[in-house]
Amino acid sequence: MNQHVWKKLLVFALTTMLLLTGCHMGNRDLQNSGTALAETGFLMLRVNPEIEIEYDKQGNVTQVTGKNEDGKKVVNGYTDYQGKACGVVLEELIGRINDAGYFTQSADGSKKNIILQIEPGSPLPTENFFQEISTDVQTAVSNLHLSSHFVTIDSNDYDQKYQQGNTASPYITLEKAQEIALTDAGIGSGDAWFEDREFDFDDGYAVYELEFTAGGYEYDYDIDAKTGEILKSQVEKGDGVYTDDDSNRFDSSTSSDQNGYLSLEEAKAIALQDAGVNSADAWFEERDFDWEHGYAVYELEFNAGGYEYDYDIDAETGRILKSQVEKDDGVYSDDDLDRFTSVSGYISLDEAKSIALNDAGVDSADVQFADRDFDFDDGYAVYELEFYANGNEYDYDIDAETGNILKSQIEKNAIGTPSQSGNTNSNNSSNQSSQYISAEEAKSIALQDAGVNSTDAWFKEAKLDRDDGKMVYELEFYAGGNEYDYEIDAETGNIWKAEKDRAD
Question: What are the structural domains of the chain?
Answer without folding.
Answer: 3-157 (no CATH), 174-237 (3.10.450.40), 245-327 (3.10.450.40), 334-420 (3.10.450.40), 439-502 (3.10.450.40)
